[in-house]
Amino acid sequence: MSTATAPTSTRRFVSLFTASPLALVGLALFILTAGIALIGPMIAPQNPYDLAAINLLDSRLSPGSEGIDGNIYWLGTDGHGRDMTSAIIYGLRTSIMIGLIASTIALVLGTTLGLIAGYARGWVDAVIMRIVDLQLSVPSILIAIVLLAVLGRGVGNIILALVTVQWVYFARTVRSSCLIEREKEYVQAGVLMGFSHARILLRHILPNCLSPVTVIVTVEFAHAIALEATLSFLGVGLPITEPSLGYLISAGFSYLLNGEYWISIFPGLALLVTVLSLNLIADHLRDITDPRLQR
Amino acid sequence: MALFLFRRLLQGVLMILVASVLIFVGVYAIGDPMALLVPPDATTETMEAARQSLGLDRPLYVQYFSFLTNALQGDLGISFVFRESALTVIMERLPATLELASTSMFLAIVIGIPFGVIAGMKPGGLADRALLIGSVLGLSLPTFWIGILLILFFAVNLGILPASGRGDTVEVFGVALSFLTLDGLRHLILPAFSLSLLPMAILGRLTRSGVIEAMSLDFARFARAQGNTRAQIVTRYVLRYISMPLVTVVGIYFGTLIAFAVVTESVFSWPGMGKLIIESINQLDRPMVVAYMMLSIVLFMFINLMVDILYSLLDPRVRLK
After folding, report:
1. pLDDT digits (tens, 9 = 90+) for A201-230
2. What angle do CA B182, B184, B188 make, to 5 degrees?
3. Which one of B26, B140, B258 has the shortest CB-CB distance to A272?
4. Rounded to a whole number, what is the distance in Å from the CA of B30 to chain A's nearest CA?
5. pLDDT score recorded for residue B1
């Protein structure tokens, strides 16, 4: 197995990845949504948090309507007269940012604990893996709901809840890779050369455990965005001052029965495209990194 | 077999105990329900009296042990809001949730598995590609949003199905069931379908990859050489071969469906325990939250145990471990 940094393997990875049209569609969609989220404030027609920019007389206008100031609301307005296009762009920003932060922390925490468990073995391994087992026996959404019920709504709290449910997936995978890698000759060679445990773990074992992690981090990124939206929809996630896509959908739900569909449906579409793009990428990454399919 | 089951049971009980400590400490250590339960102009004396009558003035570990001894006798506390046993309130709503989750799982099985078989019998074919795209959509569509779409289309635009509630129910052995009346079925179909998409996608994928793998194995080739048609091979041999992972997934996802029912019930106002827990969280009804979590965990352990038993019945090799 070659390391992931060798140029030939990078080139092979690129050619394998570009072989799937669906994965490329996923990548294009993700770059689009992430790009919109990144430069959001520059392209949004309105700042949805700026009360001065919002006109209550324009509330609940259907898509394509003309506002009182002559501007056009392409995706309509919500119950407060907020431009839906802008609200979705800002919501997307919040959702992607929270998903990214949560899955990155879960990646670092889970990988570290997985490496420690797999390398140290013994009681350290037993303790970490029992916690993993306990968590995996309860659906993640329940753990998140109860944590947020205890902690209350908030950006920090939802990130904490997402990290709590996600680190186990990284830990479980990295541990099992680490258990295999630590028995290999290059590790013994490192030990004989007098390298420290930290150096062997970080410089030699870690890079060889990362291949399956790329799949998990993509899946968990998508999962974090979907879970945050679900929790915010239920009213236990983000506070109303931080409108994410989930909150926008829940706010629009009350208008749905009057046929005012756009307040719920368009933020949901943005959410779907984001999660779908990541899942398409993850599906193909799984095929590439699965050693059974490589031979 | 008996030893295997005993060990599993012991593990389950241990897990429930650990979870009970975590839940109790977590839920009880933070937040003060008194602020909600007494009027804001209440005097300090009435506050203290209410606190004492609810047992909230005692140290946390004393509260935990009285909670545990009561829990073992089937008493999970009195709901602050309903003023009756939290377990009773939840138990009244449990059948609705179980009915929803079972119907969803039924839909997922009868649609997902046949689709997976058809796709797996001809990899790269039309059905296979449809499954690939359909399943990634099923995994990506947020449960609550697909519920909203279904309401918009069938209830608002077409007006042929109701958007909320449970409809007429029939009492069977004292348990109210919706699926036995036409009105109940009409109420059940949308929430059940929206909840079934996730397990449907998973089962479809799993069946597909299982069939593809099994069709290349010796027993399938031998059956082919004996003159069986491909359909016969799949129904007689391949499905039996791939039944183990399918049973596991059905079991695990049944638990997930009960958890995700929180979302679906909130969207469709389905009067189950999932909708109840969200309301209880918003009302800071701590005994309710604790009772719900305890009941869920016991339910999940029970489901896991059932899967283990089924597993060992299907594959004798498991029992030897």
Report:
1. 888 888 888 888 989 999 999 999 999 999
2. 115
3. B140
4. 6
5. 66
Is A4's pLDDT higher than 60?
Answer: no
Q: How far, in Å, CA of B59 to CA of A116, rounded?
A: 37
Shortest CA gap B213–chain A (Å): 12
Contacts of A265 in chain B (CB under 8 A): 148-149, 152
| In chain B, where the domains are located | 86-314
Residues B254 and B285: their CA atoms lie apart, in Å, by 27
Backbone phi and psi for residue A64, each to the nearest 5 degrees, phi listed first? 85, 0
Q: Which two tokens stand for residue A74?
A: 């392409």
Domains in chain A, CATH or no CATH each:
36-53+63-293 (1.10.3720.10)
Q: In this structure, which CATH number among 1.20.1560.10, 3.30.230.10, 1.10.3720.10, 3.65.10.20 belongs to the domain B86-314?
A: 1.10.3720.10
Does the distance separating the beta carbons of A268 and B26 come in below 8 Å? no
Which is nearest to B38 in space by CA: B251, B284, B206?
B284
Closest Cα in chain A to B254 = A139
* Chain segment A36-55, per-residue pLDDT in tens: 888 877 777 777 777 666 66
Whether A259 sits inside 8 A of B260 (CB atoms) is no
pLDDT of A225 = 94
Task: Indicate if the pLDDT at residue A1 is higher than 50.
Answer: no
Give the gap in angstroms from C-alpha B55 to the nearest C-alpha of chain A: 20
Which regions in chain B score pLDDT beneath 50? 321
Residue A12 clears pLDDT 50, i.e. is over it: yes
CB contact under 8 A, A150 and B31: yes
Is the separation of the CB atoms in A75 and A95 below 8 Å?
no
